[in-house]
Specification:
The structure holds two protein chains of two kinds.
Chain A: H1 2-13, E1 16-18, H2 20-37, H3 50-68, H4 72-93, H5 102-114, H6 125-137, E2 145-147, H7 149-169, H8 172-175, H9 178-189, H10 196-220, H11 227-244, H12 250-258, H13 264-274
Antiparallel strand pairs in A: 1-2
Chain B: H1 5-29, E1 50-56, H2 64-67, H3 78-81, H4 86-100, E2 106-114, E3 117-123, H5 128-133
Antiparallel strand pairs in B: 1-2, 2-3
Classes of the chains: A mainly alpha, B alpha+beta.
Amino acid sequence: VSWLWRAFLREVVDFEGSTRLVAVIRVLLALVAWSRFGYTLQLAQCEGDPVRLGLMLLFWPASTLLLVGLFTGPAAAITALCALALYHVVGRHQGVDALASHHVLVLAIGLALLALTPCGRSLSLDRMWALHRAQKEGAPAPAERGHLFGQRLLAVHVAVLYLGTAWEKTYPGFLDGSRLQQIYLSTYFGSDGPDPSWFVPLTLVSAWLVTACEWLLPFGLFVPRLQPLLIPAGMVMHGVMYHQIPVATFTTTMWALYLAFLDPDRFHRFTEQITDGETT
Amino acid sequence: VSLPRWGRALLSVVILLWLVGGPVARQGFGVKNKWLNAWYMYKGSGKDICWVGWSTGEGEPVDRLATLGHPPWNRAPRPVRNLKNRAEVYAEARRLCAALGPGAQLYAQAKCGSYAGWVPLEDGTRDLCQRGRR
């Protein structure tokens, strides 16, 4: 227990590093949030619904500030609260099925955990302002560093999600390809179906591949050596889903959240390399 | 967010317990609580479909959409393309029998979707037109 607690303190609570990585996650999640909630919170969609109207008034300014990184902490918190309210209040309580979906919850939790990171300390107007102040006072540029327990929690969020979905798929009805056959028949082919001689083996192999991937990713993504293999594999898996079945913003959310597994300092060095160290 | 160490530790523990505890309780142990999080994905999607292969008494395949005057599958509207349940399968069988003419025989290998997999409906041994005439 003592070893576990020390590891928890070292790897989560005291984990710190460059804030550039979480800044990139911030920009990506803000754009995904616009993509997912933009239509829902259009003025025309909010007529006669005080809850949506209130969320609209909060979401647009907050998410815009989150994107550009101005007053980033409060902006992230308000955007996350809006996303959680859209899922729980509008989606589940008011019964709007499209918002009660898992892909909304993945994004909302992602935004909530992002709010626990110093994601405005890099690539932001907050950063520009801090540099301007420092320059004016003749002080050195503030470091792009901070506590990143929120980044670790984002990674755990993704890992737990995969464990849940892998667990959910590990039963004969999925592993024999039946459930994938049903999804593809209802989405594409209809009740007459394609030629079973290729369709059945393809769905069988796909079912095993997806399930194996989802059991492997939650553990393997934490291993830096495996990341060059598993991150592209996971991205391809989500890309195929995005291309073929209705998953809304789930794929783009997961792609953005994959960054949470990367080493923030290595990512910082990488951005320095590709920009000749000119990034501030 | 600049929190003291104990604040970060407390927050992390609470969040980790919620992130991990929800799926374990709901998916692992079947606890029903709306405040607990769980990752059921596509549990219900695509279940409302039956897969049916039609054939005549001579074992010749029957092109359902062509027989009923519908466009091919890739242009047919979804309500025509997808037979959602056993009632729709048997209703379609009656339409096919009528379209094939008096004395026609129609057999079907049919199964319908469910979370557990395919549920068998017809094994191709019954003349569905005869069934309709009875």
